[in-house]
Design a protein that fits this description.
By secondary structure, this protein is α/β, with parallel strands linked by helices. It has four domains: 2-103, Efflux pump adaptor protein, beta barrel domain (Elongation Factor Tu (Ef-tu), domain 3, Beta Barrel); 180-403, P-loop containing nucleotide triphosphate hydrolases (Rossmann fold); 411-652, Rossmann fold, CATH 3.40.50.300; 671-736. The strands form five sheets. It has an eight-stranded parallel beta sheet with strand order 13-12-14-11-15-16-10-17, with helices on both faces. The chain has a seven-stranded antiparallel beta sheet with strand order 1-7-4-5-6-3-2. The two termini are 24 Å apart.
């Protein structure tokens, strides 16, 4: 993993250098200096809070003093920076060169966790067999007592797969009585902790109450095991805040019991009000370590290593959304617990949803994109076996509990992803009054089927040098559906009830321009990654890509939305009551997953819009009606709207592109003149060399040999100079990757 982490670090350094700028002005903004960053809204790549910025005077070249600042807030088109107070006081709108560097803290902690992993042992990292341990001493709600030896599995012994345990334990009294049977079983298994230190997996598909189950398990451990100390982590701050908020809402936790450990640079404005009293940072580590529950991100948990705590200080680690963290990131909190043989590791997540976000294609290719949870569940010990574990969801109940009751979505929206990813095991357990509110809606092609696939054969476009795509025709159709949903008088929707998923930043920008002008600026529009873990009553998806000739290339080069089954799974499982897909059916039909969704909609008469392609899968024999006159008229209107929309939102950009093109033409002409001069000088040099060589070398091959040798020597010198320069800039990377010095 060390080499993969270095590859990721190098790529992040390369990416963020794209933001470097020369001779720019900073603008005062309250206590900060604001810097406008071109391309920031498209996230290519993203600048994050905590990234370092170096500014220097462009007029002094190498002798220029450099000032160091940090990114404190990232806005839509600009970042807010903070430097030393003296720099702020003396700054008077001078021009400065700007150089961005990213925050290495996360990767440094991952390196530390990888080095520490040797102490975790085979039972944690590569479990091959299960060794049962007796449950820990617990205190029942009726008073202090100890689990009797006769009711436990004494000592350590091998556990044959599929063998039923005859352990007798009293029923656990739950704090949340609404848990279903699978959730109760998971809480009981976590409390008994017989598989420790081998990780226990809570397999939670979307909407099955994974976090609710995890919080209940933490409360049971906290109350019934008095000596326990818990580390509860998640890859993101929002997920960690949710855990802390749920624990607070239980009424069983006080500020003396729990700490919410935050990074230095985190703004407290983003923290939920209920969580603020629990918040601490690295300055309070001693106080944090005294709490029985510490909630943080996986990365921030690395702060606790600075205390050099004794093994066994923390007894339990719970990691929510473990599938979204890289394995080294996941090992940061695990190392605090699993180095002790009695430590328990609980991973909660879904291996069929999106994994960690990486920048380096090489790191992805060689496995850094696979989470610890996903790797474990593929090991033979965790294998699914419908014969041996028939009564336990096909998984060994000592190691895995799979939640199957979905409390989020309408059965129509749940059926297909359940069949495609979860062995058709998901059961719709949602509130009918909530999920059926759009049944009978006037715009549904099939009245009792709250799913719409609206076919649009638009045009995908790009602007200037931007690599991001947008589709004006789809953007306009998104706005039309948004207006129809928000104006539905039978079921009034709030802004938080509706969301728009689209894979390209430029499409997000275009949709945002349209809805802001219509007073719908509070509707969230974002990528699939931004919606993972969230839900909306109504979800609208715009897939953007419409060039049917480019689809094969998209799939081949894995350009995102079409070719990623996990992204497909997450996108179609966000909706509770209504899902609307706006896409080109001729494009999506070339991907296996999207084609199944298209066929599902056609089979259930939920398709509308453009003419359909020839489908070749399970519903290929269905007869499709030809587009009606009204549909053709609608298509003509949409094409006109397409042109109008593009003209409105892109006029300014086109003018800028024309100016840039003129400047480029002038530059090219100047470069051509310089090349002509250089070629003339080179020809004169070669003529002189030919004359010289003919006089000195009578051998016919002399001149050729001289020129070839000279060329190879020059190329070798250039290559050596480049390597030496690279070594000077990033010598640590080269040595750590095993390349040594040049």
């Amino acid at each position: 993993f060390s080499a993969l982490l270095h590859l990721e670090e190098i790529q992040e350094e390369i990416d963020i250098c794209q933001y470097d700028m020369e001779r720019v002005v900073l603008r005062p903004y309250n206590d900060f200096l604001s810097l406008e960053v071109p391309g920031l809204s498209e996230g290519r790549p993203s600048v994050l809070v905590g990234d370092r910025v170096i500014v220097s005077d462009p007029g002094m070249l190498s002798r220029s003093p450099q000032y160091e600042g940090y990114v404190h807030e990232v806005l839509r088109e600009e970042v807010l920076l903070k430097f030393h107070s003296e720099f702020h006081a003396n700054y008077a709108n001078e021009l400065y060169n700007i150089r961005f560097t990213f925050n290495r803290t996360m990767l440094r902690r991952c390196h530390q966790a990888v080095e520490f992993a040797a102490k975790l042992g085979e039972q944690v990292l590569f479990p091959c067999s299960l060794q049962l341990k007796p449950p820990p001493r617990t205190v029942p709600s009726g008073g202090p007592s100890v689990v009797s030896p006769s009711s436990t599995q004494q000592g350590i012994r091998k556990c044959p797969l599929g063998r039923k345990q005859k352990t007798k334990t009293a029923a656990v009294k739950l704090f949340n009585e609404k848990l279903n049977d699978r959730q109760r079983a998971a809480v009981n298994r976590i409390l008994k902790a017989q598989c420790r230190p081998t990780p226990y997996i809570l397999f939670g598909p979307p909407g099955t109450g994974k976090t609710v189950t995890l919080v209940e398990a933490m409360l049971q451990v906290f109350v019934k095991i008095p000596h326990c100390r818990i580390v509860a982590c998640a890859p993101s701050n929002s997920a960690a805040d949710l855990i802390a908020e749920r624990l607070h809402q239980s009424g069983l936790i006080s500020t003396a019991d729990m700490a919410r450990l935050n990074a230095y640079q985190r703004s407290m404005e983003a923290v939920p009000q209920a969580v603020l009293p629990y918040c601490m940072n690295a300055d309070d580590l001693r106080s944090v370590a005294q709490r029985r529950i510490v909630v943080s991100t996986c990365s921030s948990a690395g702060n606790l290593y600075a205390l050099a705590l004794r093994p066994g200080h923390f007894t339990h680690v719970f990691i929510d959304e473990a599938g979204q963290a890289t394995e080294p990131e996941c090992l940061i909190p695990i190392g605090l617990v699993a180095c002790h043989t009695s430590g328990q590791v609980v991973l909660a997540g879904d291996p069929f949803q999106l994994g960690p976000v990486l920048q380096s294609n090489h790191a992805k290719h060689f496995g850094l994109c696979m989470s610890f949870l996903e790797r474990l569940i593929q090991r033979p010990l965790y294998d699914r076996d419908e014969v041996k574990f028939k009564g336990h969801g096909a998984y060994d109940p000592l190691l895995v509990t799979k939640l199957v009751e979905n409390y989020r979505s309408h059965p129509v929206l749940l059926s297909l992803p359940s069949q495609m990813f979860y062995h058709s095991e998901l059961k719709a357990s949602s509130d009918p009054a909530l999920v059926e509110c759009f049944c009978g809606w006037s715009l549904l092609p099939s009245p009792q089927f709250p799913l719409i696939f609206h076919g649009v054969r638009g045009v995908d476009l790009r602007e200037g040098n931007s690599p991001s795509w947008f589709n004006p025709m789809e953007a306009l159709q998104v706005v039309r559906y948004l207006q129809a949903v928000m104006s539905n008088t039978q079921h009034l929707m709030s802004w938080d009830d509706v969301g728009v998923i689209t894979p390209y930043r430029k499409q997000v920008e275009k949709i945002r321009v349209l809805i802001d002008g219509l007073g719908m600026e509070k509707v969230k529009v974002g990528s699939v990654e931004e919606f993972q873990g969230q839900e909306r009553k109504v979800m609208i998806i715009s897939t953007v890509r419409s060039n049917e000739q480019l689809v094969d290339g998209d799939v081949r080069h894995n350009l995102g939305f079409l070719s990623n089954p996990k992204r497909f799974n997450v996108s179609v499982m966000r909706a509770m009551s209504l899902l609307i897909i706006i896409a080109n059916p001729h494009v999506l039909a070339q991907d296996a997953n999207w084609c199944q969704l298209l066929e599902y909609c056609v089979h259930n008469e939920a398709y509308t819009g453009a003419d359909l392609p020839l489908l070749t899968h399970s519903y290929k024999d269905l007869d499709y009606d030809a587009p009606s006159v009204e549909m053709n008229a609608c298509q003509e209107q949409m094409l006109q709207a397409d042109s109008l929309l593009y003209a409105c939102v892109a006029t300014k950009e086109k003018e800028e592109v024309l100016v840039e093109e003129k400047e480029e033409v002038v530059e090219e002409q100047e470069e051509e003149k310089e090349e002509v001069v250089e070629e003339q000088e080179e020809d004169e040099f070669i003529d002189d060399m030919n004359t010289s060589c003919e006089e000195e070398e009578k051998d016919e091959g002399g001149f050729d040999y001289f020129i070839v040798e000279h060329t190879e020597h020059t190329e070798h010198d250039n290559y050596t100079n480049e390597i030496v320069e690279m070594n000077n800039q990033s010598g640590d990377y080269m040595r750590l990757l095993g390349m040594g010095s040049i």
